[in-house]
Write a structure and sequence with these properties.
With 144 residues, the chain is of the alpha+beta class. It is built from three helices and four strands. It folds into two domains: 55 residues, no CATH class; 64 residues, no CATH class. Strands 1, 2, 3 and 4 form a four-stranded antiparallel β-sheet that branches.
Length: 144
Amino acid sequence: MEEGIEFKLLCNPVKILGYNNPDDPRDPKNGFVSGIECIKMELGEPDESGRRSPVEIADSEFVLDVDCVIMSIGTSPNPLIKSTTDGLEVNRRGGIVVDEVTGLTSRDGVFAGGDAVTGAATVILAMGAGKTAAKAIDEYIKAK
Ligand SMILES: Cc1cc2nc3c(=O)[nH]c(=O)nc-3n(C[C@H](O)[C@H](O)[C@H](O)COP(=O)(O)OP(=O)(O)OC[C@H]3O[C@@H](n4cnc5c(N)ncnc54)[C@H](O)[C@@H]3O)c2cc1C
């Protein structure tokens, strides 16, 4: 903000527009980015946890004139895990549901931790979850 960067909050990119001059196939701008279409968002109704997720405002699309787009995207758990593992409970964001104390999932003998549980977080949280699960796995095996 101090450096004059403009933050467009509650605003989602819809598509990247390309420049194309049909009258001049040799126009040097052809094939380059000419703009990005965005749509305005607003906070929807709170879910059961009280969190309000953004929803699109109908017909609020607008175009930003840009000549360069740099992706800085978030991450989410790979849906492959859920789709290939029977009985594995995940939350609505695709994070594996675990017992907070042990890291045990809804499948007996299967433990999880880190970003696959919390969504994109930090190394230190993933390491902590790993230690928690390691201890619980040790106890689980010894109790067998
Ligand atoms: C660009 C970027 C920058 C970041 N910067 C920071 C930072 O500065 N500080 C910080 O604390 N955190 C940072 N993070 C977050 C941090 O990287 C993660 O929170 C952390 O790595 C999560 O650890 P994890 O072990 O849960 O998952 P991961 O590190 O993602 O490890 C999961 C592993 O499982 C493997 N895997 C996936 N599917 C399968 C499969 N089917 N079979 C076998 N293996 C599989 C993957 O290849 C991967 O090696 C950053 C993340 C990103 C993307």
